[in-house]
Amino acid sequence: MTTSDADPVLRLQSVRKTYGKGGGTVVLRDVDLDVAPHTVTALIGASGSGKSTLLRCVNLLEEIDDGAILLDGVDITDPRTDPDQVRRRIGVVFQAYNLFPHMSVLDNVTLAPRRVHGVGRAEAEGRARELLERLGLGKKADEYPDRLSGGQQQRAAIVRALAVRPRLLLLDEITAALDPELVGEVLSVVRDLKDEGMTMVLATHEMGFAREVADQVCFLDAGVVLERGTPAEVFGAPQQERTQQFLSRIVEAGRL
User: Fold this and answer.
1) Structural contact between residues 153 and 99, judged by C-beta atoms closer than 8 angstroms
2) How many CB atoms lie within 10 A of CB 41?
3) What is the pLDDT of residues 92-130, one digit of tens each?
4) Average pLDDT for the chain
5) Which of 154, 206, 211, 223 could staple 231 via S-S, CB 3.0–4.6 A?
């Protein structure tokens, strides 16, 4: 299938996700979302609003109950879909780094290209070292994760996600586990990726950053995309009362 820059990289159509039996707890309610190529979509909302679950559904770590998720026009939630094939095209960075502690940074980064994508060791290590250098970790390639600061570990996790040349990058609260002084160095990497045209969806509590870097902001509340628009629209003139309440508390806390 051929795609163009007019087609969304990612499309969610009436996506519904519940936990528990008999309807249980509805976590995502009929979510519709389009993500255009070379854009950043920021998911904002209170804890428990469904942001992380949405990202997990996109990466097929969670099975949806209804609706469809399309990657470049292909329904990746079709039961016949091979999840591993889909994940080859999607990079994911979690808040907890998830680096293998018994492997060097270089081995962490090259594991998926070599084992999943069949890239030769020399090529995989060459790209890994190039990415590590670009993200300020060139001298840390042979270190083990426990020798790195939190910010360095998160940057290494981003390098690992980029090493597979993803079509789409998902970032799930990647600064949540960091000390405040380390947040800036990780966000600067995301800012650089945006400038390079990477298509990204990020769940974040960093409202100022979302306002600066996002092309589209989606406010989730109880599993519903209650409001969406440009940062100027959502942050500057929110239409929904719930959005206004959420942002007013953010302003009071000095986070916007």
Assistant:
1) yes
2) 21
3) 998 888 899 999 999 999 998 998 888 899 999 999 999
4) 92
5) 211
Cα separation, 103 vs 247, in Å, equals: 42
Inter-residue long-range contacts of 137-142, CB under 8 Å, 24+ positions, other chains counted: 137/105, 140/105, 141/104, 141/105, 141/106, 142/104, 142/105, 142/106
Alpha-helical runs (H) found in 44-174? 51-58, 83-87, 105-115, 121-134, 150-162
Task: Give the C-alpha distances (Å, rounded to integers) separating 241 from 113, 247, 255.
Answer: 46, 10, 19
Question: Which residue pairs, CB below 8 angstroms and at least 24 apart, start in 192-196?
Answer: 193/158, 193/162, 193/169, 194/40
Q: 3-state secondary structure string, 155-186? A: HHHHHHHHCCCCCEEEEECCCCCCCHHHHHHH
Q: pTM for this one?
A: 0.91
Distance CA 62, CA 53 (A): 8
Task: Please write the tens of the pLDDT for every residue from 47-56.
Answer: 999 999 999 9
> What is the CB neighbour count within 10 angstroms for residue 121?
10
Share of the chain above pLDDT 70, in %: 96
pLDDT the model gives residue 22 = 66
The answer for residues whose C-beta is within 8 angstroms of residue 207's C-beta and 6 or more apart is: 44, 235, 247, 250, 255, 256
Q: What is the rounded distance in angstroms from the CA atom of residue 77 to the CA atom of residue 90? A: 14
Residue 154: CB atoms within 10 A of its CB come to: 27
Summarised one tens digit per residue, pLDDT across range 65-96 is 999 999 999 999 999 999 988 988 999 998 88
